[in-house]
């Protein structure tokens, strides 16, 4: 547990995340995404006056899932596993590199969960976190960043500009093996 506490501190420093962020060390980025979105689901229902742990999903208020059209398949799987329904996703148009087009994001509110990408799987592109997160936070929206492929750019002087604004999100998922070449079972979820 001491080692995890030290690594958590390092990760917050490397990614320039809020001090109140905590880390969970899980079996891979798929599980990190699932955990980040489970936290999003819990807090979003809480904002809507619904205790998901006590009442479950039956008769629950509607939660909106807003996501770019080039989201990774593991994000869709997590949405399905959490009972949020892939058919309920509000898809946002993306540019030729797979980045969400900020002007195409629908009006957000406190019932929304917005999922962004740090490192689109085919192009490596990053969403415009700084601009998008400012609008989403004002609306009371939970923001999750799938950073399996690109969150580590924050650790590089040459590349950290790509992650500008990620600290404004509420949760982040990242994988150790894609960039750091660690073993497969090295996912990390970070949550404000």
Structure characterization notes:
The chain is α/β, with parallel strands linked by helices. The longest helix has 19 residues, at 29-47. β2 (64-68), α4 (73-81) and β3 (89-92) form a beta-alpha-beta unit. It has a 7-stranded mixed beta sheet, sandwiched between helices. The protein contains 6 helices and 7 strands.
In short:
The protein is an alpha/beta fold and 192 residues long. The protein has helices spanning 2-15, 29-47, 52-55, 73-81, 129-138, 176-180; strands at 22-26, 64-68, 89-92, 112-117, 142-146, 171-175, 187-191. Helix 2 packs across helix 4 (73-81).
Topology at a glance:
Layout: H1 2-15, E1 22-26, H2 29-47, H3 52-55, E2 64-68, H4 73-81, E3 89-92, E4 112-117, H5 129-138, E5 142-146, E6 171-175, H6 176-180, E7 187-191
Parallel strand pairs: 2-3, 2-4, 4-5, 5-6
Antiparallel strand pairs: 1-7, 6-7
